[in-house]
Amino acid sequence: MTYPKVRMQSGQFLQCWIGLLKFKPDKIIGHVEAHNVDFAYPARPDVFKGFSIIIGAGKSTALVGPSGSGKSTIIGLIERFYDPFRGIVKIDGLDIRSYNLRSLRKHIGLVSQEPTLFSGTVRQNITDGTSDNVDETELIEAAKAANAHNFIVGLENGYDTWCGDRGLHLSGGQKQRIAIARAILKNPSVVGVNAIEYPSNVDHFIRLKEICNLV
Ligand SMILES: Nc1ncnc2c1ncn2[C@@H]1O[C@H](COP(=O)(O)OP(=O)(O)OP(=O)(O)O)[C@@H](O)[C@H]1O
Ligand SMILES: [Mg+2]
Questions:
Q1: What sign has the CA pseudo-torsion 92, 96, 100, 102?
Q2: What is the residue range of the signal peptide feature (predicted)?
């Protein structure tokens, strides 16, 4: 059988080489800085102008603001889902564009605003992303730290309960706790929890404090 030849354009070839040459750190400390960042979506031309923030390594920093103010976008810029039009985002003092993308994301644990669980057991949903076989004690410790262990052991089959599309229906908060346990188990240097709405009522405020204590 013959296959059509796929020719690489010179630009793509160069990009591959540049990708290989990028920095692949074994470890990052997790000091995040954004300086004078301008960013816009095509349909929303003015999300940030001259935005700056410093998130110290090992610190829990909450991004609080009204809906649409750009909290998720900041997480997206740190994960390099998008690049700023102007300004710079740095991790450990280095422009994040200098890092190999896969390597950078290995060090970042993101808990999205509305995490979806894949079809599989609770255990599989927590251990996703960790390369080695996970020790049961480590798994339970991560779930406890994420405040998820108590509700998990209360499920019909505990950690072996099936979840996902056709499985168990968990509340948004429970899914988020599983996602936080997953992020903790991955042991990244930067954890982004994209969960915060403007704390206009007491429940939101308590939730906000809870999340900040967790990560
Ligand atoms: N993919 C996109 N394309 C176009 N506009 C977008 C996109 N994502 C977000 N926006 C717009 O950019 C602005 C910032 O959005 P973002 O999601 O960062 O806000 P947020 O603070 O996380 O809001 P929420 O608290 O509701 O999650 C909003 O006006 C939003 O409508
Ligand atoms: Mg958001």
A1: positive
A2: none
